[in-house]
Amino acid sequence: MPSLPQTYTISDFIEWSRKGQLKLDPDFQRGSVWTPAARVFLIDTILNDLPIPQVYFRTKVDAATQTTVREVVDGQQRLRAILDFALGKLRLTSKAPKHRGKLYDNLTIEDKELFLNYKVPVVQLLNASNADVLEVFARLNSYSVKVTPAELRHAEYSEPVKWAIYNAAREWPQLWNEYKVVSVRDSVRLKNTSTMAELFIVLDNGFGDGGEPSITKYYKAKKTKDDDYFAPLRQKIDEIIGEIIANTADDLKETTFFDAPNFLALFAAIAYLKGYSPHSRTTDAVVAFKGQGVNWERGLANLSEIAREFDGYDPESDEESPYASFIAATKSTTHRIPSRKTRFEQIVRAIAANDP
To answer: Which of 90, 228, 307, 310 has the smallest C-beta neighbourhood within 10 Å, fewest atoms?
Structure first.
């Protein structure tokens, strides 16, 4: 069974569909039907000339009628979204911010041409039997890398909670590309969305237990919330991240405070001192500091001292560091409350504007 990788334009798919040469049969459908948000996001990806995954055809040549029929065995939902948009059956939403509210006919000539000329990567399975197709996908799946929890959530959820977190991660690229709060390699696997999700959780629920199960629990709990619910949380996130970068990036970007666990702890401390986050089990010893504000001049000096101690700490030394508990907590399981409580308390005391 030969296979042939090629690219075809969207206009090719439209022509095949009109001529009855494209069959969107469900025999090999994988996964559930896409939500409207997922369909719009795909069209936005195309209109931004970004790549989409390959489509697999079973290409059958009918010698008697001298025609070729392309049966889609993987990629049906992608092609349905593309064809529906081309036919004016799909209106773009906020998931396509540059084209929000538009149908295909509302696009500019330039955007219509970009859409129609967009090249879709295709693998053709020539005259393959059902058994051949199943064998192909069994082999593809045997080489697949196990998905991360973040990738699994991104595939499972399509509600505003997912898009609020995803868009926040996407719109703060300097955190991952420049400051490496989460490495670029891990960000490709969407682990930056896990860190961003924890920022939302801090503001919404307070600084408590973390880790992937807690993040997934948050997605489930907020599944019914709309965009308006997340907008004020996003506004506070932007404010605090901007403040961290403006006041600390020049001095601390190479330190532990720009690694995800302590970036999160620093964010949580600032949120608490601003009165933006509720009490939680980590705040018991610093309740009096809530809403007191941040003194960045004093705070930067103290954070720099903690960072120096962290980098130069020798556990065998006879001289105990004043930040030994912070260092030990950072080097332990950083998503559990005991570790977070220790680091949070020290950061709050280090950067608070006033000492109650």
So the answer is: 228
Q: What is the Rg, in whole angstroms, of the alpha carbon atoms belonging to the chain?
A: 26
Strand order in the sheet with 3-9: 3-9, 119-126, 55-62, 67-74, 22-23
The CA distance from 60 to 151, in Å, is 35
pLDDT higher than threshold 50 for residue 31: no
The predicted-structure confidence for 103-127, as pLDDT tens digits, reads as follows 999 999 999 999 999 999 999 888 7
Work out the angle at residue 276's Cα, subtended by the Cα atoms of residues 270 and 282, and round it to the nearest 5 degrees. 65
Rounded CA separation 126/59 (Å): 5
Give the Cα separation of 88 and 99 in Å (integer): 14
pLDDT at 36: 87
Rounded to an integer, what distance in angstroms lies between the CA atom of residue 180 and that of residue 167?
A: 18
Contacts of 348 (CB under 8 A, 6+ apart): 269, 272, 273, 286, 289
Contacts of 275 (CB under 8 A, 6+ apart): 290, 291
Which stretches within the chain are classed as H helix?
10-19, 36-47, 76-86, 109-117, 130-142, 149-156, 160-170, 173-177, 184-188, 191-205, 212-221, 227-252, 260-273, 296-312, 324-330, 337-351
Report the DSSP beta bridge partners of residue 77: none
Strand partners of residue 6: 122
The pLDDT of residue 169 is above 90: yes
